[in-house]
Amino acid sequence: MTETTTTPPADRAPAPAARGLVPLPPATALPLLLAGGIATAASTFLAWTWTAEFPGDLTVSGYPGGLQWLTFTAGLLTALFALSAYRVRGLRWLTPAGNHAPLLLVAVGGFGTTWYTVLAITIKLGGLANLEPGGFIAAVASLVPLVGALALPAEHRGEDLATALGKRIAKPDRIPAAEATTPWVQRAAITAVAVVGLIVFTYGIDTEYGELFIGYLIVVVFTIWALHTAGLLDRFSQLLAGNRSFALAMGFLAAIAFPFTQTDDHYANIGVNILIFGTVALGLNIVVGLAGLLDLGYVAFLGVGAYTAALVSGSEFSKFSGVQFPFWAAALSGAAASLIFGVLIGAPTLRLRGDYLAIVTLGFGEIFRIAVNNMDGDSGPDITNGPNGIPSIPDLSFLGFNFGEAHDVGGFTLGRFANYYLLMVLIMALVVLVYTRAADSRIGRSWIAIREDETAATAMGINGFRVKLVAFALGASLAGLAGTVSAHVTYSVVPNPYQFAGSTPPNSAFLLAAVVLGGMGTVAGPLLGAALLYLLPEKLVFLQDKSLLAFGVALILLMRFRPEGIIANRRRQLEFHETGQLDVPDTTTLTDEPAVTKAGT
Amino acid sequence: MTTPVLEARDVTMRFGGLTAVRSVDFTVNSGEIVGLIGPNGAGKTTFFNCLTGLYVPTEGTVSYQGTVLPPKPHLVTKAGIARTFQNIRLFANMTVLENVLVGRHTRTKEGLWSALLRGPGFKKAERDSEERAMELLEFIGLAHKRDHLARNLPYGEQRKLEIARALASEPGLLLLDEPTAGMNPQETRTTEELVFAIRDRGVAVLVIEHDMRFIFNLCDRVAVLVQGEKLVEGTSDVVQADERVVAAYLGEPFEGDPSTTKGEVQ
Ligand SMILES: Nc1ncnc2c1ncn2[C@@H]1O[C@H](COP(=O)(O)OP(=O)(O)OP(=O)(O)O)[C@@H](O)[C@H]1O
Ligand SMILES: [Mg+2]
């Protein structure tokens, strides 16, 4: 707060206002970052606590373990970014804009995860006495890069503390265009990102205790944020736009590779549930993200598909226990049943504008759950067994390949859930294909037009009712398709999961949240949103009854700071942030489209 | 040979007790540019909405090339009447090219299945559509901005893009609701040329405008609507000389008088 006017102005060229937030000479900032990063990474080779009671065994010296791996990674990243700020050859691409925001963010990530670990040890084991010297060293070492990052000279001047902090973690408006690279380099980069992505994702799914998952989240969130402010995410999405089919292929390869990295079928089970949830969210994205129809009962279509598949599965508790459809027929019937319900719900309501659809779908969702609850032979016809549902659904069998048994593929053992996981990858690929192809066509454009301005769209010759019905029915049948697999994965279907809101996915509120959180109108957004919303309640057991509250808060924060969702559709990004002419495509040189005709008339 | 393109017969539109359009008979012939003028609130836009099916007229019929139109906007567009809006209604978050492609909706047929299967027919139709759209963008001079979002265009270009989007449906009659509102004199003049060029493509034009110089330069025939009723109809000279029209416009002479060419706020 006090004015420090010790340095004479002739001493350094920039004015004294260009100081950091911590009163240290700016020249010490980068050395602090580099040394602190290395020290943080090194501290993980020491023992942090004396007892193995804290999960992950942080008692060994000589190599990192458990949560220490996260601190190690964060420390290493901090050092790398610091070297990049030194403009070391070969690392300059990490901070193309030369801004300081990524440095601060990785430093915060390392500090956060380290201090979280140290505090968790202290609290869980009851007192500072449980920390070995290594723990204190780690805490101090991880503070050093943070101080260093805050001591970096400000890039803007003359603001109060809050705005100054905000500016320090903001993405610069202008990221210098990437140098031209050969297709080989681009593909290698995409492959590398796919591999790293798979490793990071697998690590997250395989975390065995809540503390590890929280530490993981801290590191991942701040690292991705740092990459974003460095402009690397923008560059990467340009890269993807230029190599679309290669990127898609790599994405699916990475998805297929996941079960081969797992030794425990439990984690493949999480994987398959995320895929089901994500696929349904992507189907909902057609309805909500493209056509702009608010569907609050979407999970019911998943339920219709699941119940249909259960009824024709040959389960002895099914009303039609004699009937056992082959899977392709069951999948088609599930999708068709959902389609019929979609048309039945949509036809009367889609003629109206406004919020009627939201109310009717909300009602339909609840009616579905209550109806299957009551169709037990007592209060209604005996079809669904009421609250007991339809248990012991037999496993799928496909050309002699039984999904219920473990199989050895090339030295890897694929368990039951891994089999279903791979089937779900296929179905998700189908849904992604449907989504992208439909979005980029005459019908997709008319959905977006309806969402933008229904009056103008009808005046342009679009039959609003018909195209909305197509979107609604398509979304419904995709959910039904996913439901048929989910019935077999879970062995049984019961009415309870198909409700509007609950503390575990899938339910309509979670599905909608996955779409909005991940990013409406994108392919990756709902998948990411679904993964997050599935993993958080799964991993953070202590949240349990408070998870709905936590998601509510998270959604409000998101709507305040990033209304377009985590992964932004270009359209929506421009909708929410006045960025002038940012859509002038300086990316055209990277895509295979012909360059824009610059000749005016 | 002049054949009637549009025939409105006895069109009346009532909103509760308010009669916004009262028994209007109106004809537009092929190859014509017809003006529709009248003071604020006279019912011009309401009349447009009746013609295009956005409102169902309380009484009367609208026919296009001899067949009576059903009051459904998308069927009207399909029949061959396209329009622009007084307060621009572009698809703000779609690109310039996409806006025009949406305009081609009625002239293409590819549904969901063909979009999913992507057969040769689909690819050809998409290519053709894009070619036609680009040709229209060149026609109005916005080809170089094909990948900009519509919301980022300057006002005058948004009005032009709305015209291109309407033309994409290959109409026989184009309805323009105040196409020069908010434009500077320079832009107004280019719009004038644009309307002539549209007529030369064989499209009849019906235009609402408050800018009298624009109307009298442009139109073969002008109709005056006052309080929902058609007061006068005839050539520019006839209308300008008619004293009832002068009276309706607060007793001021028209030509170039700024007080009568005031802009529109809606
Ligand atoms: N949907 C509606 N409901 C009730 N009244 C309406 C409606 N639409 C228009 N009106 C009324 O009808 C009258 C005619 O309005 P209209 O918009 O057609 O005028 P206009 O000639 O286009 O005027 P301007 O030059 O200001 O555009 C006005 O009094 C208006 O308030
Ligand atoms: Mg009007």
Automatic annotation (TrEMBL), chain A:
Species of provenance: Streptomyces doudnae
Pfam families: BPD_transp_2
Annotated localization: Cell membrane
Protein name: Branched-chain amino acid ABC transporter permease
Its membrane topology: Multi-pass membrane protein
Transmembrane annotation, as ranges: 29-49, 69-88, 100-123, 135-152, 184-201, 213-233, 245-261, 267-288, 295-313, 325-347, 354-372, 418-436, 469-489, 509-535
PANTHER family listed in its UniProt record: HIGH-AFFINITY BRANCHED-CHAIN AMINO ACID TRANSPORT PROTEIN BRAE (PTHR30482:SF10), HIGH-AFFINITY BRANCHED-CHAIN AMINO ACID TRANSPORT SYSTEM PERMEASE (PTHR30482)
InterPro entries per the UniProt record, alphabetical: ABC_transp_permease, LivM-like
Keyword vocabulary terms for this entry: Cell membrane, Membrane, Transmembrane, Transmembrane helix
Principal subcellular localization: membrane
Domain of life (superkingdom): Bacteria
GO CC annotations, alphabetized: plasma membrane
TrEMBL record, chain B:
Annotated coiled-coil segments of the chain: none
CDD domains referenced in this protein's UniProt entry, alphabetically: ABC_Mj1267_LivG_branched (cd03219)
A Pfam family the protein falls into: BCA_ABC_TP_C
Residue ranges constituting the ABC transporter domain according to the UniProt record: 6-252
InterPro entries referenced in this protein's UniProt entry, alphabetically: AAA+_ATPase (IPR003593), ABC_AA/LPS_Transport (IPR051120), ABC_transporter-like_ATP-bd (IPR003439), BCA_ABC_TP_C (IPR032823), P-loop_NTPase (IPR027417)
Keywords, comma-separated and alphabetical: ATP-binding, Nucleotide-binding, Transport
One of the record's GO molecular function terms: ATP binding
Name listed for the protein in its UniProt record: ABC transporter ATP-binding protein
Provenance organism: Streptomyces doudnae
Biological classification of the source: Bacteria, Bacillati, Actinomycetota, Actinomycetes, Kitasatosporales
